[in-house]
Design goal:
Blueprint (H helix, E strand, L loop, with lengths): L8 H4 L11 H6 L2 H6 L2 H21 L6 H9 L6 H11 L2 H12 L13 H37 L4 E6 L2 E7 H25 L13 H6 L4 H14 L16 H30 L2 E2 L19 H16 L1 H8 L10 H27 L2 E2 L1 H15 L1 H10 L4 H22 L5 H6 L8 H6 L10 H19 L13
Antiparallel strand pairs: 1-2, 3-4
C-alpha cells in the first residue's frame, strides 16, 4: 500500500535545496568569502598544494622526484577532476586515496611519487591549519573594519553627553562617543588575541603515522637532518614559519580549542554591544538601521525591533557554546591518534567561523547605519541631572557661608521628596525648584538651571575617547589601511 505521506521526486523538488536541510549559516548569515574558505574546493586545492610542496621538498633534498614530475603536478593543481575522485571513493571508501588516484590520472608521470612517505593527516591536518589561518585573517580584516566604523562614530559623538548606567540605573554622565570607545576596547583585545594566534599557528608538517617521522627517516636513509629540513621547507612553501616540533599522527587538538576560544571572545564582545544597542533602542536614544520597507512586527505595524542586534546575540551564544566542542575533543584524544575528533571537527570548527563571520558582518552593518537621537538623550539626561548635580550645588552653598553637614541632610531630604514625586506621582523632577525655595542654599532657580550643563559632569569622557582613538585605534588602522573600506550587506 502506498504511503500517503510519500512524495514523488517532482513533488519533493529533487535537485533543489528545498528538499533537504541546508545550514542557515550558509544560507542566511555567513559571507561567500568565508564559505569558500571552508568549501570542498578550497580543501582539495590545498591538498594539491601540499602534495606539490612535499614533492618539491623531497626533490630538493635528493629523493628520486624529478623536476618534470613536479611541473606536471603544478600544471594540474587547480583543474581538479572531481568526478574521477568521487567514482574512486565509491570503490575504496577513502577520500585521500581517491584524490591521490584522481591526481595521478591527470599526472601519469608523477603518479608514483604523489603523497610519497605521507599519511592522510599530511593533507588533512595541514589543510585544517591552513584553512583556519585563512579564516582568521578574514576575521581580522572584519574586526579592523568594525573598529574603523566605530572610531568614526565615537569621534562624531565624543562630546555628546548621555546618561551612563550602572546596574541599568542612571549614574554619572558619560558621552555617546565614550560608550562606543568601550565597545572598541573589547574588540581591540579580541584583535590582539587574533594577531597572537595567527602568528603562532604551526603546520603539522610531515610527521608520519604516529608522529615519529619513521617513514621519512627510511626514505632519507637515516639522515635525521634531512627529515627535519623536510618539515622546514614544507612550512616555508606554504607560508608558515614553522611546524609542530612534536606531534602524534595529528596536530594537537589543543589548537582547535585555542582558535574557537578566540572566536568565542569576539562573540562575547559583539553580544555585549548588541545588548547595549537593544537597551538604547528601547530608550529611543540610539537605533540600529531600519530599512524603508522593513517590517518590524507582523502584528504591530509601528514597531522598530532591533532585529540585527538580536541576531548578533543569537549567533554569539552559539559560538560561545560551540567553543566547548574542541575543548572536550582535545581532552579526550587517546595517545597518538583517535578518530572521535573527525566528525566533531567537521561541524564545530567551520560553523564557529561561519557564525563569527556573520556576527561581524552584522556588527559592521549596524555601526555603519546607527541613528542617534540627541533630543531624546538630552531629555533623559535633564530628568536625572539635578540629582547628580547636588554635590556641586552643596559646595557652592558652603562657599556662600552654609554648613556642609546641614546642607547635606537638607539635600538628602529634598532629593527623596523629588524622587517620590517622579516615581509615585508621575511628575517631572522638581528637585531644582525645591532647592531654590530653601534660603540656606543662597541661589535662584534661574542660577540652578544655568548650572545644569551636562558637559560639566562627564569628566574626561571626551578626552579619553580622543586619546584612545588617536593613540591606539588610528595608528592600528593606518598600519592596516589596505584592509579597510568593507561594507557588509546582510541577507535577511
Amino acid at each position: 500500500m502506498k504511503n500517503k505521506f510519500a512524495l514523488s521526486s517532482a513533488e519533493m523538488g529533487i535537485g533543489m535545496s528545498n528538499d533537504r536541510y541546508v545550514s542557515p549559516l550558509s544560507e542566511r548569515y555567513a559571507s561567500r568569502e568565508m564559505q569558500y574558505i571552508f568549501s570542498p574546493d578550497m580543501k582539495f586545492r590545498t591538498w594539491r598544494k601540499l602534495w606539490i610542496a612535499l614533492a618539491e621538498a623531497e626533490h630538493e633534498l635528493g629523493l628520486p622526484v624529478t623536476a618534470e614530475q613536479i611541473e606536471e603536478l603544478k600544471a594540474h593543481a587547480d583543474d581538479i577532476n572531481y568526478e574521477v575522485a568521487k567514482e574512486r571513493e565509491q570503490i575504496v571508501r577513502h577520500d585521500v586515496m581517491s584524490h591521490v588516484y584522481a591526481y595521478g590520472v591527470q599526472c601519469p608521470k608523477a603518479k608514483g611519487i604523489i603523497h610519497l612517505g605521507a599519511t592522510s593527516c599530511y593533507v588533512g591536518d595541514n589543510t585544517d591549519i591552513i584553512v583556519m589561518t585563512e579564516a582568521l585573517k578574514l576575521i581580522r580584516k572584519k574586526l579592523l573594519n568594525v573598529l574603523s566604523e566605530l572610531a568614526d562614530f565615537a569621534e562624531e559623538y565624543k562630546a555628546l553627553p548621555t546618561l551612563a548606567f550602572t546596574h541599568f540605573q542612571p549614574a554619572q554622565p558619560t558621552t555617546v562617543g565614550k560608550r562606543a570607545a568601550l565597545w572598541m576596547m573589547e574588540l581591540k583585545l579580541d584583535l590582539d588575541d587574533v594577531d597572537y594566534l595567527i602568528d603562532s599557528m604551526m603546520l603539522l608538517g610531515s610527521k608520519g603515522t604516529t608522529g615519529t617521522q619513521a617513514s621519512f627517516l627510511e626514505l632519507f636513509d637515516g639522515d635525521h637532518e634531512k627529515v627535519k629540513e623536510l618539515d622546514h621547507r614544507i612550512a616555508n612553501k606554504l607560508g608558515f614559519a614553522r611546524c609542530f616540533p612534536v606531534s602524534g599522527q595529528t596536530y594537537s587538538r589543543k589548537t582547535d580549542t585555542r582558535v574557537l576560544n578566540v572566536l568565542a571572545g569576539i562573540a562575547a564582545s559583539a553580544h555585549k554591544f548588541s545588548n547595549d544597542i537593544r537597551l538604547l533602542q528601547h530608550l529611543k536614544e540610539v537605533e540600529e538601521p531600519f530599512e524603508k520597507n522593513q517590517i518590524g512586527s507582523s502584528a504591530m505595524a509601528y514597531k522598530r525591533n532591533p532585529m540585527r542586534s538580536e541576531r548578533i546575540a543569537s549567533l554569539a551564544r552559539y559560538v560561545m557554546v560551540d567553543a566547548l566542542n574542541p575543548a572536550i575533543t582535545s581532552a579526550t584524544q587517546w595517545f597518538e591518534r583517535t578518530l572521535d575528533d573527525s566528525a566533531n571537527k567537521r561541524l564545530s570548527v567551520p560553523e564557529a567561523f561561519l557564525a563569527a563571520d556573520g556576527i561581524l558582518d552584522l556588527y559592521l552593518n549596524i555601526v555603519d547605519g546607527l541613528v542617534v537621537y540627541p533630543k531624546v538623550i538630552e531629555k533623559h539626561m535633564m530628568a536625572e541631572l539635578p540629582f547628580m548635580a547636588t554635590e556641586n550645588i552643596m559646595m557652592d552653598a558652603v562657599k556662600a557661608g552654609g554648613d556642609r553637614q546641614e546642607l547635606h541632610e537638607r539635600i538628602r531630604m529634598l532629593s527623596m521628596e523629588a524622587g517620590k514625586n517622579v516615581k509615585e506621582k508621575g511628575l517631572d523632577n522638581n528637585l531644582l525648584e525645591l532647592i531654590a525655595a530653601e534660603p540656606e542654599f543662597h541661589t535662584s532657580l534661574e542660577e540652578l538651571k544655568r548650572a545644569m550643563d551636562p558637559a560639566k559632569y562627564t569628566g574626561r569622557a571626551k578626552e579619553q575617547t580622543e586619546e584612545f582613538i588617536a593613540e591606539v585605534i588610528r595608528p592600528l588602522l593606518e598600519e592596516n589601511k589596505e584592509l579597510l573600506g568593507m561594507k557588509a550587506e546582510i541577507k535577511v
